[in-house]
Amino acid sequence: MTHSTEILDFIAGLSLPDAGAPLLQTPAVPITDSVDTDSARIAGHSVVSFVSGLSQQNREDVLNSTLLMQLAASKAFDKAQQREQWFRFYTEGLGKLGWTVSNSSIEHYVPKRETFTMDQVALEIIESTVGGAGFEPVMKKTFEALKKQPQALALFERHSDHGWLGMFQVLPCSQTAEGNVSMLLNCMQFIHNSLRYKILFFTYHQHEVQVYRSAQLAVLNTGVYSQVREAVLDKLGGNAGQFIARLAI
């Protein structure tokens, strides 16, 4: 059995959760953003930002590959009770699809401020990650846009909030000189001591919340991914239309 056949069998064997009733009022449309502009999407519990210069094909490949593994990991493991197993399954699956991911662990993190919102903590983590500073401007624009677009924010919160626990990803991306994708994979989970139904823009205090994160640069080998692109699209089926929303930034 060839390596590509093994990967195709892996994709075919993934189980995905039922999408449930559509949250979006209009179906998702293909990416048509200009490659000369920044853009962003909500994909389930991920905030995905694209720096100008990233091709439309690469933008679609980022969304589809990360969404597939997000959904499959959530079907296989309970995010609230099996944080480490969820993240390991997710990152190892991305590796099979062509992403170079070096770290599959998620660790406790203490925010620098006594009071904070989760978008502020996400930016703080991006700034402190090797290679992350260049992504800060597009993420600031993305968060500001998300505050003003309630439908996209509702989609994000639906998939990120679990009452006592929140889990989400911030994934800014750019294109390398070789045409591959460089992505800052920032996965965050937090456990709070009272019920909350807001994720990014609610003000927390250090004593009432525990934050966990994994932040690293990951690179998508587009040559490898091109061999499984159609299989990923087939597996997602209609899911992409219910889990992805465009952000105007």
Concise summary:
The protein contains nine helices and ten strands. It is of the alpha+beta class.
Could you explain the architecture of this structure?
- The chain is of the alpha+beta class.
- It contains nine helices and ten strands.
- The strands form two sheets. Strands 1, 2, 3, 4, 6, 7, 9 and 10 form an eight-stranded mixed β-sheet that branches. Strands 5-8 form a two-stranded antiparallel ribbon.
- A hairpin with a 2-residue loop joins strand 1 and strand 2.
- The chain is globular, with a radius of gyration of 17 Å.
Structural class: alpha+beta
> Mind telling me the C-alpha Rg?
17 Å
Our count of domains comes out at 1
CATH architecture verdict:
3-Layer(aba) Sandwich
Largest sheet: 8 strands, mixed
Strand content: 15-25%
What is the H-and-E element order?
HEEHHEEEHHHEEEEHHHE
**What is the number of beta strands?**
10
CATH topology: Delta-endotoxin CytB
Secondary-structure topology with pairs:
Blueprint: H1 3-13, E1 39-43, E2 46-50, H2 56-76, H3 83-97, E3 99-100, E4 107-109, E5 115-116, H4 118-128, H5 136-147, H6 150-160, E6 165-175, E7 181-192, E8 204-205, E9 209-220, H7 222-225, H8 229-236, H9 239-243, E10 244-247
Parallel strand pairs: 2-6
Antiparallel strand pairs: 1-2, 1-10, 3-9, 4-9, 5-8, 6-7, 7-9
Helix pairs in contact: 2-3, 2-8, 4-5
